[in-house]
Design a protein that fits this description.
The complex is a heterotetramer of chains A (247), B (212), C (77) and D (241). In chain B, 31% of the residues lie in helices and 25% in strands. Chain B is of the alpha/beta class. Chain B folds into 2 domains: 140 residues, P-loop containing nucleotide triphosphate hydrolases (Rossmann fold, 3-Layer(aba) Sandwich), CATH 3.40.50; 61 residues. The chains are: A mainly alpha (247), B alpha/beta (212), C mainly alpha (77), D mainly alpha (241). At the B-D interface, helix 2, helix 3 and helix 6 of B face helix 1, helix 4, helix 5 and helix 9 of D.
Chain lengths: 247, 212, 77, 241
């Protein structure tokens, strides 16, 4: 177990594994995502309340799922960084934080555009949108702090502390925003009760979510490989690998 | 031969992706003065900060009295005195208040002792003047006054002679030598040409890092 | 197919612009991010490669010249 | 020149306990602050000026001010605390006293807690004391002002404690001030929401004990967790300097 853990932390081992898995991640991710989107856009039935605008859900929900789970993954990595000082954990946080930011932005953007035809407004200070906006700030802070510190190791550990402080705060923020929202709920924008989704609707949604997760896996592997190249460029194995023409 | 106070085994430190030193091993015995030497940027200050426990970005082993240092951090801190580049003196406080604050977390010391120490560094008459009105050398002397009352067996002194006049330098040299004779261990970095009988060296940045 | 014709698919009963803008931005950002990450990886890889090739050509880097603090002559015309 | 004499190592019993060390740190910070009184006034002036901007910039109508007063005062207090946080560790870092603080044979998080409490007493507490005056200027009624002061009294220590983490993380960085705000403002949102929410509930005549208890829980959480995080962040920042 312990040996496996150490192996997992070795950049060289990861680099090899990632290179082997990446084509599969990319192919299956694209396939599932395209299948989910095409099915959702063209074949899924119309929602009887919201009409066709609900079709945004097939990208909105996957983006929102990823935005949140990337932060959780970063928090686990942060623990590993602080406790075991594993190199790969630092690399992961640094590599995926911008991806998380983009997905958070996407979920906010699609949510806003979805809101216009559905509730007649681009933005509501609704609990979910507001806490997503705060998540965007948290990602921004993580990236800004990482950029501001020159030394890689210090940056990784400082970012790890920040991510953990953020993750302790997320439930508190979520709870307080929910509470605040019930206090200020503007009656006109009351969310309609979600009817249970038809099978033809949730199957493509699940496909799109799975596809986006796989694509995220590909992106994470690629960006981590780049970061490993930068950090380990003076080691023998990177030199041998690059001179031998391996990707 | 007495047991080494501090023992370093294959220390390695990388800073801003530049390797400062690797495979650095040495032992610090009680009753010795050790000088860390090397050109600018060779990592003297970083080494001292690592030994003090201020810098965590290193690998290797550090043993304090035969036990891993990280496991008895508090005992280590209690027995180690570090004076850095920055003197640790609040410009708004007087020398006496500064010394009091510096000793506060360590052990109880009476004001008389502190005043004596200040007098010993040539600061009598300045005890109640805010430190920002003192010269750079005088401010350093406030920090150095701690050496006159310190009972910690290990001293880590980074650039002790900065801004100190010739007479002061001589007095400090004598102090270090006396300290070694008492059985204390001192590690210094300095660009001043410090020569003491029986002094040990740790050389950085010369390519090879030998044991000493 | 949930729509009668291709044009109906595009219009989506008036919701077309919203849906298509969303999908457009989504695809643009996702593809952009993937492409950008890929390009960065290639660039870094090439930089490493060039560095290694140069190193093996030149051999060991020359030792640094010691600092002499001689003044640099500057012609002042 | 190995001496025959061996210095004995210091045992624990001769030492000073953590509580006395904390008191010393607190006393030193207060003393330093009172040597430079202008710095103590600055957050208060800033607080007053930000509050002044709202009647001038939005509307001086009594109805508006009555409704928004609590929110304005909370936001202004939050910004004042944020502004003062940059100094929490910076001066100590620059003159080297922070290094010596970290090398004291004491648990670092307790010393950080002492420093943070000193910071609160020198910035947060004066803000609370100034609030009734500004509350009157914003036409808040007595009940609201009392509740507002109470929420600020519980809330400002949380701001100082959470802010200490950000101050420690950004220590020694370029443009630390802006970065500090970016990192910390999202974490301040819960306190802000409950602070103003409590006052709103009080204005409606609903019982506020539950809300105050919840804010107390925030304070407790911040007291127990924030010093650890700030101490860890300080170790990282100093390690990098």
């Amino acid at each position: 177990m312990w040996q496996f853990f150490h192996k997992l932390g070795s950049p060289k081992w990861f680099y090899g594994i990632a290179t082997r898995f990446m084509p599969w991640l990319l192919a299956s991710g694209l396939l599932l995502l395209v299948a989910g989107i095409v099915w959702g856009l063209a074949f899924a039935p119309k929602d009887y309340l919201q009409g066709n605008s609900y079709r945004i859900i097939f990208i909105h929900v996957p983006a929102a799922f990823l935005a949140q789970s990337i932060y959780i993954m970063m928090a686990f990595s942060a623990v590993v960084t602080l406790v075991w000082r594993m190199k790969l954990a630092d690399v992961f946080v640094k590599a995926v934080a911008p991806v998380g930011l983009v997905f958070t932005f996407l979920s906010l953007f699609t949510g806003a555009v979805w809101g216009k035809p559905t509730w007649g407004t681009w933005w509501v200070w609704d609990a979910r949108l507001t806490s997503m906006l705060i998540l965007l700030f948290l990602y921004g802070g993580v990236i800004a702090l990482d950029r501001a510190i020159n030394d890689e190791k210090s940056a990784a550990r400082a970012v790890a502390v920040l991510v953990l402080v953020g993750v302790v705060n997320i439930p508190i923020i979520k709870y307080s925003v929910d509470w605040w929202n019930t206090l200020h709920q503007p009656a006109t924008f009351k969310l309609t009760e979600k009817p249970s989704m038809a099978v033809e609707m949730w199957v493509p949604l699940v496909l799109a979510i799975l596809g986006l997760y796989l694509l995220f896996g590909w992106l994470a592997c690629l960006r981590m490989k780049t970061e490993i190249l930068i950090r380990e460029q003076r080691t023998r194995w990177v030199r041998d690998l690059v001179l031998a023409g391996g990707k | 031969m007495p047991e080494p106070l501090l023992q370093a085994v294959s220390l390695e430190c990388e800073r801003d992706s530049r390797l400062l030193f690797q495979n650095l091993s040495f032992s610090i015995l009680p009753g010795t003065v050790t000088r860390v030497e090397g050109p600018n940027g060779s990592g003297k200050t970083t080494l001292l900060r690592i030994l003090a426990g201020l810098n965590d970005a290193w690998s290797g082993e550090l043993h304090w009295c035969g036990k891993p240092r990280e496991q008895n951090r508090e005992s280590y801190l209690r027995n180690m005195l570090y004076l850095g580049h920055r003197p640790g003196i609040k410009p708004l406080l007087t020398p006496l208040e500064n010394l009091r604050a510096l000793m506060a977390g360590r052990r109880p010391v009476s004001d008389e002792v502190l005043l004596q120490a200040l007098a010993g560094t040539g600061l009598s008459g300045f005890e109640h003047v805010a430190c920002r009105n003192l010269s750079a050398g005088q401010q350093r002397r406030v920090a150095l006054a701690r050496l006159l009352i310190a009972d910690e067996p290990l001293w880590l002194l980074d650039e002790v002679f900065t801004a100190i006049d010739a007479a002061g330098v001589e007095a400090i040299e004598a102090l270090l030598q006396q300290r070694a004779a008492e059985g204390g261990a001192v590690i210094v970095t300095t660009h001043h040409d410090l020569q003491l009988p029986g002094m040990k060296f740790i050389t950085l940045g010369a390519g090879e890092n030998d044991e000493c | 197919m949930a729509f009668d014709s291709f044009s109906a698919f595009l219009v989506m009963e008036g919701h077309g612009p919203y849906v298509w803008v969303c999908y457009g931005v989504f695809v643009l950002l996702l593809a952009g991010m993937m492409f950008w990450s890929f390009r960065t990886h290639q660039d870094i890889y090439q930089i490493c490669k060039r560095g290694y090739e140069q190193q093996s050509k030149v051999g060991q880097p020359k030792p640094k010249a010691p600092a002499t603090f001689t003044r640099v002559e500057v012609s002042q015309d | 020149m190995n001496a025959d004499v061996q210095l004995s190592l210091k045992a624990e019993d001769a030492a000073i306990g953590p509580v006395r060390a904390m008191i010393a740190v607190f006393a030193r910070d207060v003393r330093v602050a009172f040597r430079q009184r202008q710095d103590l006034l600055n957050p208060l002036l800033f607080f007053t000026m930000v509050v002044t901007l709202f009647p001038l910039g939005v509307s001086p109508e009594v109805a508006f001010l009555k409704q928004s007063g609590a929110g304005i005062l909370w936001v202004a207090a939050l910004l004042s605390v944020l502004l003062s946080l940059d100094h929490l560790f910076r001066h100590d870092f620059d003159d080297g006293t922070l290094e010596q603080l970290m090398l004291q044979p004491q648990p670092l998080f307790l010393l950080v807690l002492a420093k943070t409490m000193a910071h609160w007493m020198l910035t947060g507490l004066p803000l609370v004391l100034l609030t009734p005056v500004l509350g009157l200027m914003l036409h808040l009624d007595g009940n609201s002002v009392a509740t507002l002061c109470l929420t600020l009294l519980i809330g400002t220590p949380v701001l100082s404690l959470v802010g200490a983490i950000g101050a420690a993380l950004t220590l020694g960085l370029r443009s630390a001030g802006v970065l500090l705000s970016l990192l910390i403002i999202p974490l301040y949102i819960p306190v802000l929401i409950f602070g103003t929410g409590t006052v709103a509930a009080a204005a409606e005549g609903s019982p506020v004990a539950g809300y105050l208890a919840l804010m107390g829980a925030f304070l407790f959480l911040a007291l127990t967790l924030a010093p650890f995080a700030a101490a860890a962040a300080l170790r990282i920042s100093l390690s990098n300097s």
